[in-house]
């Protein structure tokens, strides 16, 4: 996969792209990550890429010329998904990450001012993505989040191919709790079932804990989840216990 980022502050990506999973993914050849300074395509000696908004108002607006020129230069002969990081965009989810992981070319546009000229939104991008209902200084941190989420899904990136399958949201539920050695720490013990060696009971415990955690923390996810009869009974038990408490 090729991922290209357009930003006014390309140095922000050095640490993130040069460490941990993203670094390993590049070393394995699973992904190629490139960052380009939008000012390179300003077309003027002052490298100005923004201007005052028509009609007045606070802040500066990113001009269309640099964005169009940059995208056209790096996508020549390609048909990438062009993603605008924007608080007005579609809320980013694990399902969206899995969708984007199927692509071969992604381009991320990161603004850093009041906003984008609307023509960029209307005629250049294929997707608008938001990572939540809050506003950041620019789109860079959001792009890093999305890129990390997508790249870890690519074949060969994680140490174990199925590592991401049981992640929270990948199954539609929140992930079950995890424990490691020691079996007891300051009086806090690992659940006996995890030490039993009985894989069937361990899987049952994990499924029930996943349901319990989702019920307690994100009950909205259960509204769309295809529950089995057994899972429905377990959730009824949880609800009754809550009412009795």
TrEMBL record:
One of its GO terms (cellular component) is cytosol. Keywords: Cytoplasm, Methyltransferase, S-adenosyl-L-methionine, Transferase, tRNA processing. It catalyses: guanosine(37) in tRNA + S-adenosyl-L-methionine = N(1)-methylguanosine(37) in tRNA + S-adenosyl-L-homocysteine + H(+). S-adenosyl-L-methionine binds at residues 111, 131-136. Residues 1-224 form the tRNA methyltransferase TRMD/TRM10-type domain. It comes from the Bacteria. One of its GO terms (biological process) is tRNA N1-guanine methylation. It is found in: Cytoplasm. Its main location: cytoplasm. GO terms for molecular function: tRNA (guanine(37)-N1)-methyltransferase activity. Its EC number is 2.1.1.228. Belongs to the RNA methyltransferase TrmD family. Homodimer. Specifically methylates guanosine-37 in various tRNAs. This is tRNA (guanine-N(1)-)-methyltransferase.
């Amino acid at each position: 996969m090729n991922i290209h980022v357009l930003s006014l502050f390309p140095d922000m990506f050095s640490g993130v792209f040069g460490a941990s999973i993203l670094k390993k993914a590049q070393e394995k050849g699973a992904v190629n990550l490139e960052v380009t300074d939008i000012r390179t395509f300003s077309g003027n000696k002052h490298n100005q890429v923004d201007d005052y908004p028509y009609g007045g108002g606070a802040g500066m607006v990113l001009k269309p010329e640099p964005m169009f020129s940059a995208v056209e230069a790096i996508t020549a002969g390609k048909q990438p998904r062009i993603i605008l990081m924007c608080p007005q965009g579609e809320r980013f989810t694990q399902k969206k990450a899995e969708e984007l992981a199927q692509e071969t070319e992604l381009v991320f546009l990161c603004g850093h001012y009041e906003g984008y000229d609307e023509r960029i939104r209307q005629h250049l991008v294929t997707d608008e993505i938001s990572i939540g209902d809050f506003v950041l200084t620019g789109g860079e941190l959001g792009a890093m989040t999305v890129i990390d989420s997508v790249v870890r899904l690519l074949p060969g990136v994680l140490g174990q191919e199925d590592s991401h399958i049981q992640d929270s949201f990948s199954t539609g539920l929140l992930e079950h709790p995890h424990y490691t050695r020691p079996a007891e720490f300051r009086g806090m013990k690992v659940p006996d079932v995890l030490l039993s060696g009985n894989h069937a009971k361990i899987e049952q415990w994990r499924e029930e804990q996943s349901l319990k955690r989702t019920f307690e923390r994100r009950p909205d996810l259960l509204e769309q989840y295809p529950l089995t009869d057994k899972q429905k009974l377990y959730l009824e038990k949880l609800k009754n216990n809550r009412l009795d408490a």
